[in-house]
Design brief:
The complex is a heterodimer.
Chain A (H helix, E strand, L loop, with lengths): L2 H28 L8 H4 L11 H12 L3 H9 L4 H29 L5 H8 L2 H30 L6 H20 L4 H19 L2 H11 L10 E3 L2 E2 H19 L6 H26 L13 E2 L2 E2 H8 L7 H9 L10 H25 L5 H6 L6 H14 L5 H39 L9 H18 L2 H29 L5 H29 L6 H43 L1
Antiparallel strand pairs in A: 1-2, 3-4
Helix pairs in contact in A: 1-5, 1-15, 3-15, 4-15, 4-17, 5-14, 5-15, 5-20, 5-21, 6-7, 6-20, 7-11, 7-18, 7-19, 7-20, 7-22, 8-9, 8-12, 11-18, 11-19, 12-17, 12-18, 13-20, 13-21, 14-20, 15-17, 17-18, 18-19, 20-21, 20-22, 21-22
Chain B lengths: L1 H22 L1 H23 L10 H23 L10
Helix pairs in contact in B: 2-3
The chains are: A mainly alpha, B mainly alpha.
C-alpha cells in the first residue's frame, strides 16, 4: 500500500471520528454550555486555575500527550504486519482514544477541577486513589527503562549522535541564561540557540568527531561490536547509559528554569522541524510498502496479537497518561466548556496522525519487511524511526552522502531529546513521589540527591538487565490500566449524572479485559516460557522482575474492578430509586 | 478582499497560538506557578493566623494586611485545596 493511501485513510478516520461521532456525543450527551463558568474562571488564582485561549490550550494539550509513545508503539507493533497496527491506530482513537481525553477534560471541568486521584477516591473507593498512584509509579519506572534502553543502548551508541545531543543541551542552557538572567527577547534567543543546536548536530557527523567517539566507545576495525564490559553491556552501551543517567540526574536536581525547561524549549524546535521535514519528505517521495506483509501471523516476538498489540500501541491509540494531563492540567485552564472537544478530542486525533507518520517510517521508508528488520526491527524501534526519518528527509533532494549522515544523526538526536526531556521530568516526579510516600518514615528520602539517585538506580537496573520488548509490554499495560481507570471513572460520573454511558462503558470493558490479559500473558511468558530457558543469572533476574511487576499490576487491577463494580451497582441502584 | 485577509490573519493567529501553546505555554505557567508559590508562602508566613497558624505578631500582620487583602481569597483556596501527587503531573 502507498503512504498517501494510508494518510488518506487516517484523514477519513479523523474526519468521520471527529466531525461526526465526537461532535454528536458532544452535542447530545455532554451538551456543553459556553456561558457556564468553568473552574478556570470560577477559581482563577493566576497559578493553577487560569483561562487560556483554545488554540494555546490545543498546542499545550498536544505537546503534553505526544512524546515517544506514539512513535515507538507503531514501529514495534508492525511486527504483526501493517494491517493490525494501522487498524488499531485508527479504530482505537475513533472509539476509545478521543473519548477518554475529551471526557477527562469534561469531568475535570464539571467537577471543579478535581484531579483523577481525588475523583477516584470519591467516585470509586478510597483505595482506588492509591491504586492509581501505584499504576503511575510503575508506569513512570517503565518509561525510564524503555526510553533509557532506546537512548542509551541504541541512539547514543551511534558515534554521530552524542556531540549533537550535548550541544543541543548546551544551547538549551544558553537559552535559559538569555531568557531569565540576561532578559533577552525570546525570538532572538530562539534563533540564536536553535542555529547553534542545528550546527551542533551537523558537527557531530564530521569524521573527526565520529572517530573520537568511536575511540571512547571502543569500536575497533574489523569488529562489529565494542568489547563487552559486564553482563551483556558493551562499552558503547555503558557510555550511552551513563550519559543518560548524567542528563537525568542534572535535570532532576537543578532548578527547572536552569535545565529542564529551556532544554525542552530548544528540543521542541528540533522536533518540530524534524516532523515537518519528515512529513514533507514523505509527501514528496510517496513511498510504497513493497513486500511488507499485511499480516505476519498471530504470534510475534512480543507475544500474541491479542492482547499484546493493544498495549504495544498505547499513545497513538489510547493512553491513560492523557487522562491525567487532561484532568489536572487542561481542565483547569479551559475558558469555555465548548472548547473541550476541540482541545481534548482534536489533540488526540492529531496524535493519531503523528502515530501514522511513525507507522509509515517503519513500513515504507525501507521498502520491505527485511529492510525494517535490518534497520533494527521492534527491539530497536528508535533506530528504525531515525533511519526512516532520514530517508524521508533525503527526499528533499539533499546530496545522498550529506543527507544520510545528517539525516540519521538528526533523527537520532530528535528522538534522544524527545526521550530525555520526558525522562528528567519523570525522575523529578519519582523523587517527589518517594519523598511524599516514605519521607516520614525515612527522612533521608527527602534529600533531593538521595531521592534522585534511588530513582536512577531503578532505571539503570532496568536498562542493564531487562530486554526492551519485555519492559515495553508492562509499560503499555500500566498505561492502559490507567486508561481503564479513567474510563471507569467517566462511566461512573455519567451514571451519577443519569447520562448515556454506553460510549465509555464498552471502551472501559474492552481495555480492562485486554490489559489484564496482556499482563497475564507477560507473567506467564516470563515465568513459564522464558525463565526455564534462561541462559544466565541476568536473564533469571530480568524474567522474575517483569513477571512479578505484571502480577502486581494484575492484583491491583482486580481490586480496582471489584471496587468499580460495587460503585456501578451503587449508582444503578440510585438511578433505579430516582426513577421510582 | 479584506474579509479574505482577515480570514488569513485569523488562521495565522491560530497557528501562532498553537505554536505558543506547544513551545512556551508551559514556561509561562511555570513562571506563574513559581511567583504564585512565593507569594502564597509569604502570605502564609505573615498572615498564617488566618488559617490558624500564628507565626508573626499581629502588629506586622496588620501593617501588611492592606497589601495582602486582594489575594486572600485565592490564597485560602489554594492552601486549603485537597492535593495529591497527580496535581504535580500537569
Amino acid at each position: 500500500m502507498n503512504a498517501i493511501v494510508v494518510l488518506i485513510l487516517a484523514a477519513i478516520g479523523i474526519g468521520v471520528g471527529y466531525g461526526i461521532y465526537a461532535k454528536s456525543i458532544d452535542r447530545r450527551v455532554i451538551q456543553p454550555d459556553p456561558s457556564k463558568a468553568t473552574p478556570a474562571k470560577m477559581y482563577m488564582d493566576g497559578v493553577d486555575f487560569i483561562p487560556a485561549n483554545r488554540n494555546v490550550l490545543f498546542g499545550y494539550q498536544f505537546k503534553s500527550i505526544a512524546a515517544l509513545g506514539p512513535i515507538l508503539g507503531p514501529i514495534i507493533a508492525v511486527q504483526w504486519g501493517w494491517l493490525p497496527a494501522l487498524l488499531w491506530i485508527i479504530l482505537g482513537v475513533f472509539f476509545i482514544g478521543w473519548v477518554q481525553d475529551y471526557a477527562s477534560i469534561i469531568i475535570g471541568v464539571r467537577e471543579e477541577g478535581q484531579t483523577f486521584g481525588a475523583l477516584s477516591y470519591r467516585l470509586i473507593s478510597p483505595r482506588a486513589r492509591n491504586i492509581l498512584l501505584a499504576f503511575i509509579y510503575i508506569y513512570l519506572l517503565m518509561i525510564m527503562g524503555a526510553f533509557g534502553i532506546q537512548v542509551g543502548f541504541s541512539l547514543l551508541t551511534n558515534p554521530a549522535v552524542p556531540l549533537g545531543v550535548i550541544i543541543v543541551i548546551l544551547a538549551g542552557l544558553l537559552a535559559g541564561q538569555m531568557t531569565y538572567k540576561w532578559k533577552q527577547d525570546i525570538i532572538l534567543t530562539t534563533v540564536v540557540t536553535v542555529i547553534i543546536a542545528l550546527v551542533g548536530i551537523w558537527l557531530g557527523t564530521l569524521p573527526a568527531v565520529k572517530n573520537a567517539f568511536n575511540a571512547i566507545y571502543g569500536y575497533q576495525e574489523g569488529k562489529t561490536e565494542p568489547p563487552t564490559l559486564f553482563l551483556d553491556v558493551n562499552q558503547a552501551e555503558f557510555v550511552g547509559s551513563l550519559l543518560v543517567l548524567i542528563f537525568c540526574y542534572l535535570g532532576a536536581v537543578l532548578p527547572i528554569w536552569r535545565w529542564a525547561q529551556p532544554i525542552n524549549y530548544i528540543a521542541f524546535w528540533i522536533v518540530l522541524f524534524g516532523i515537518l521535514g519528515g512529513v514533507i519528505g514523505l509527501l514528496i517521495g510517496r513511498p510504497g510498502m513493497g513486500d511488507f506483509p499485511a499480516f505476519t501471523g498471530f504470534m510475534a516476538a512480543a507475544g500474541p496479537l491479542w492482547p499484546m498489540l493493544f498495549v504495544t500501541i498505547a499513545c497513538g491509540a489510547i493512553s491513560g497518561w492523557h487522562s491525567l494531563v487532561s484532568s489536572s492540567g487542561t481542565a483547569r485552564q479551559l475558558e469555555k466548556e465548548t472548547d473541550a472537544l476541540y482541545v481534548g478530542g482534536g489533540a488526540m486525533f492529531l496524535e493519531m496522525f503523528f502515530a501514522t507518520i511513525a507507522f509509515l517510517a517503519a513500513t515504507t521508508a525501507f521498502g520491505s519487511f527485511q529492510g525494517y528488520q535490518d534497520a533494527g526491527g521492534p527491539a530497536a524501534a528508535a533506530a528504525v524511526f531515525s533511519k526512516g526519518l532520514s530517508v524521508f528527509l533525503n527526499n528533499w533532494g539533499l546530496d545522498a552522502a550529506l543527507g544520510q549522515g545528517f539525516g540519521v544523526a538528526y533523527g537520532a538526536v530528535f528522538l534522544t531529546l524527545m526521550a530525555l526531556t520526558i525522562m528528567h521530568l519523570v525522575v523529578r516526579f519519582m523523587r517527589v513521589a518517594s519523598a511524599e510516600a516514605l519521607g516520614d518514615r525515612f527522612p533521608i528520602l527527602r534529600n533531593v540527591h538521595v531521592g534522585t539517585i534511588i530513582a536512577l538506580l531503578f532505571t539503570v537496573f532496568l536498562i542493564w538487565f531487562v530486554p526492551f520488548l519485555k519492559i515495553w509490554g508492562v509499560f503499555g499495560a500500566a498505561n492502559q490500566l490507567m486508561a481503564s481507570l479513567a474510563l471507569l471513572l467517566i462511566t461512573l460520573w455519567l451514571m451519577s449524572r443519569a447520562k448515556n454511558y454506553q460510549w465509555t462503558f464498552w471502551p472501559f470493558a474492552f481495555m480492562f479485559v485486554t490489559t489484564v490479559a496482556a499482563l497475564l500473558w507477560s507473567a506467564y511468558s516470563s515465568f513459564f516460557i522464558s525463565l526455564p530457558k534462561a541462559k544466565d543469572w541476568q536473564d533469571v533476574v530480568a524474567q522474575v522482575t517483569i513477571g512479578t511487576l505484571a502480577l502486581i499490576l494484575v492484583v491491583l487491577a482486580v481490586i480496582l474492578v471489584v471496587d468499580g463494580i460495587r460503585a456501578i451497582l451503587r449508582y444503578r441502584a440510585e438511578l433505579a430509586k430516582a426513577r421510582r | 478582499m479584506s474579509e479574505q485577509r482577515s480570514k488569513w490573519q485569523n488562521f495565522l493567529d491560530s497557528v501562532k497560538s498553537v505554536l505558543y501553546g506547544m513551545a512556551g505555554h508551559d514556561m509561562t505557567r511555570f513562571a506563574l506557578k513559581t511567583r504564585g508559590s512565593m507569594e502564597h508562602l509569604f502570605i502564609l508566613v505573615t498572615m498564617g493566623d488566618l488559617l490558624g497558624i500564628p507565626i508573626l505578631p499581629p502588629y506586622y500582620s496588620l501593617r501588611l494586611l492592606p497589601y495582602v487583602v486582594p489575594q486572600i481569597a485565592t490564597w485560602k483556596r489554594r492552601m486549603l485545596r485537597e492535593r495529591d501527587l497527580t496535581d504535580a503531573l500537569a
